[in-house]
Amino acid sequence: MHEMSIAEGVVQLLEEQSLAQNYTRVKHVWLEIGPLAAVESEALRFCFDAVTRNTLAEGALLDIIDLPGEAWCLGCATTVPITQRYDSCVHCGSYQLQVTRGDELRIKELEVE
Ligand SMILES: [Zn+2]
């Protein structure tokens, strides 16, 4: 499952960071996810709970922040909102969109001790 490897990647990052930043426990994680990262929030939550067991992030809260997707429409020569990679332009219906944001997947903030 895609979400499982993402959750594992997050935990790995938390463990690496704990050495550099000198914390032993992660209590809360805020993740920013764009619509094009194709992540199911509920599946990710489930996987996060599973992979954090017996790690420094066991029992940590996970907050998922949905970021907007955006693309540049060649037809309108403007930035338009998108919710998936192959959306058409909401203004002119064109499929000539260049995605400019929406595939983010990053840790925004951590609460540690
Ligand atoms: Zn357009």
TrEMBL record:
Binding-site residues for Zn(2+), renumbered to this chain: C73, C76, C89, C92
Gene Ontology biological-process entries: protein maturation
* Residue numbers binding Ni(2+): H2
What Gene3D superfamilies does the annotation carry?
3.30.2320.80
Superkingdom of the organism of origin: Bacteria
- A GO molecular function held by the record: zinc ion binding
Keywords, ordered alphabetically? Metal-binding, Nickel, Zinc
What Pfam families does its record include?
HypA
Known function? Involved in the maturation of [NiFe] hydrogenases. Required for nickel insertion into the metal center of the hydrogenase.
Q: PANTHER family given for it?
A: HYDROGENASE MATURATION FACTOR HYPA
Family per UniProt? Belongs to the HypA/HybF family.
> Under what name is this protein listed?
Hydrogenase maturation factor HypA
Give the organism's phylogenetic lineage. Answer: Bacteria, Pseudomonadati, Pseudomonadota, Gammaproteobacteria, Oceanospirillales
